[in-house]
Design a protein that fits this description.
By secondary structure, this protein is mostly helical. It has 3 helices and no strands. Helix 1 packs antiparallel against helix 2.
Length: 104
């Protein structure tokens, strides 16, 4: 099946250098954009998929490097309650695993 959404567009101020932007939200949005590229590559009948894969890998590396090192720290303990903080910690772990698997 095709991806569930069309291309994501970003306004010029939506970048990691903007001090008022929520970097976590921007990271997630850009990750969705990269996921869409992977889906489109996988659906393509084009024979240039290796070059496309290299381009996607570079985008993924650049996105990963845009986040501070502290963001990538694995939490020692996940909050035991059903809170937004606990959900965010689990989400970070899934993203860290996904990025590390697709980026290597």
């Amino acid at each position: 099946m095709p991806p569930g959404s069309e291309s994501v567009t970003f306004r010029p101020e939506e970048n990691f250098q903007n001090p008022v932007i929520d970097k976590n939200v921007l990271f997630s949005r850009k990750l969705v954009e990269i996921s869409d590229l992977i889906s489109k590559r996988n659906e393509s009948k084009d024979f240039t998929t290796y070059a496309t894969t290299q381009s996607i890998d570079e985008k993924l590396d650049n996105l990963a490097n845009a986040m501070p090192e502290t963001w990538w720290a694995i939490p020692g303990v996940i909050a035991p309650s059903r809170t937004a903080e606990a959900a965010m910690q689990v989400d970070y772990l899934f993203v860290q695993i996904w990025v590390s698997l697709t980026g290597d």
